[in-house]
Each structure stands twice: as structure tokens, then as C-alpha cells.
Known about the structure:
Blueprint: H1 2-18, H2 22-33, H3 38-44, H4 54-91, H5 109-123, E1 127-128, E2 134-136, H6 137-140, E3 159-162, E4 165-167, H7 173-181, E5 186-195, E6 207-217, H8 222-237, E7 243-250, E8 253-262, E9 279-288, H9 290-295, E10 304-311, H10 312-320, H11 333-336
Parallel strand pairs: 1-5
Antiparallel strand pairs: 2-4, 3-4, 5-6, 6-10, 7-8, 8-9, 9-10
Helix pairs in contact: 1-4, 2-4, 5-8, 5-10
Bound molecules: phenylalanine.
Amino acid sequence: MRETIHQILEEARGAIGEVKSAADLEALRVQLQGKKGSLTALLRGMGRLPAEERPAFGALINSARETIAEMIELRGMALRKAERVLRLEAERLDVTEPRPQPALGAAHPISMVLGDMVDIFVGLGFEVVEGPEVELDTYSFELLNLPKNHPARDAQDTFYIEDNIVLRPHTSPVQARTMLSRKPPIRVICPGRCFRADEADATHSPNFHQIEGLLIDKNITMADLKGTLDAFARGLYGEGIATRFRPSFFPFTEPSAEVDMTCVACRGKGCRVCKGTGWIEVLGCGMVNPKVFELCGVDASVYTGFAFGIGLERTAMMKYGINDMRALYEGDLRFLTQFR
Ligand code: PHE
């Protein structure tokens, strides 16, 4: 009997030692300790033994079971440890491994030129303010001295949402909002998106950008306006760029001017871009009309001021030598990333 048990233990030791995985070990455990195991068979045969031998025999079998359980436990620990080492090895991540670079984006030419312009005007003491793109007729026109049925309204092909609500055709409504909400001295620029019912072509887009400027204080004259715009032109394009004022008309400024800048492409010599004139039209401006002051609650007997509106598209096109405005809106990355 002892012989048999010894043999069973030796076989179990051999089998357990050969098992290569936790799963196989579990299968072997069921086989050794289960109902069909050889120790179980021995236990069942105990009934045939004389009664006085049974306790000693039972104790022997139980100790054999414990030995087997211990061997399984030890082998299990060893297997789990080995499997863990393998798994960690397989899962190892080299955080220093160089990866292929994700494609880098680029700022849009409009954003870049806007950033440059904001830098220049902030350097001159202006503050950036913004207004809504969907705007009331009141701010877009009426407070700017453009009453309903005024013929000058035709100059702006405005998109109407409702009778009194428009997609703003210029950034000038922010002027009216600022005068109504602040006390002079006022020095603001208002960049933003504008909309007009224009056909898209090389120089027009129904959706474009302006930067509005408004300065109100005591003793402000047209010379201040000219000096500010000269500083802007030089700041953006460098020395040797001048401005030229031509008389014009806007209902919200009086007097009004259209401003040309030395053509950046030929530096004034005359080329295809400026049609041989050496000048490029860049913005509209003027001294704030006293009627606008009156409508917006500024005392015209104390204050004077100037305002201007610059098109960002045209400025970006000049700065980067772009000859078709549509390229700014087509979203072609080959085009857009070259100005980075
Ligand atoms: N709002 C005018 C336009 O869109 C530009 C402008 C702004 C002119 C401020 C004078 C003063 O054409």
C-alpha cells in the first residue's frame, strides 16, 4: 500500500514538473484530485481493509493529498511568475522611441496678417474689441448716419436675415456699439468677419474680413489719422511704404478718404499688381461725422475722432503676393501651408 502511494506521489511530481502553463496545471489538478484520481480510487477501496488498519491508511492518503496540493501550489506560483515576466516583456513600451511626426498645420494667411496688424495697433495704444456678425440694422446703418431708404445703403449689398437683422456688411457697427458703451478717450480696433452679396472672383468674396479702427479724444485731427495709418503701413511692410489720401464719401465720416499705399510688389515703380500706378487702394477712413457722435451720445463740441476700415484679404494678398482671393477660401493645404 505504501508502495502504491509512493508511486502515485512520484508520478504526480513528474507530471506537475512537466506542466508548461497555468491552464495545463489546472487540468492536471482536476485529474489528480478529482473523483477519477488514483488517490480517490484508493480511498474508495479502503472499505475492503480490516477496520483497525483504516485510520492509519486514511491518514497516509490524506498526507499524500496534501503533498500533491502543495506541489501544485508551488508549481502554480512558478508558472504565474514566468507568465508575468513574459507578458511584461511583450507589453513593454519604449516611450523614447521616435515616432513619425504628425503633419503640422499652418496659420491661415488671414490669421497671420491679422496677428501682425493687431500687434502694430496694440503697440500704438489701441485695444481690441469685437462685435456680433449677425447684427441689428440699427448699429449697422442707422446709428452710422445711414437712415432707412438712404441711397448710400445701396452701396452695401447687404444680406438681410429679417427686417432689422443683417449679416454685418462691415465692421463699422462695432464703432457705434463702442461709442454707446464707453466714454472717450476711445482707442479701439475691431477685427472681424463681414458679409456682402458679392459674386466671388479674384478680388471679391461674399465673406471677407475687416479691421475697424476708432479713435476719439480732444483735439484729434486728420493729421493724427494720417500719422497712424503711415505708422501702420511701415509697421506691416517696412520703411519706404507711404500712404496717399484721396477724397471719398462715407456717411459716417466727414471728411472721408480712400487711402492708397505704395505698391508692395514693385515698391512704387509701377507693375502689373498696381496696374502701373505704383499705388494700391487699401482702406477707407475719415473724421467721425458729428452726426454719428450725436446719434451715439458723444459730445461733438468737446471731442473729435477718426475711423478707418481695412480689408484683411487685400492686405494678406499684398503681403504674401497672392493674386486670387478665392485661393484664401478653397482650403487647399498645398497653398495654405506655404506661408508658414
Ligand atoms: N465701413 C467702410 C467700408 O466697409 C470703411 C470705413 C470704415 C470707412 C470707417 C470710414 C470709416 O467700406
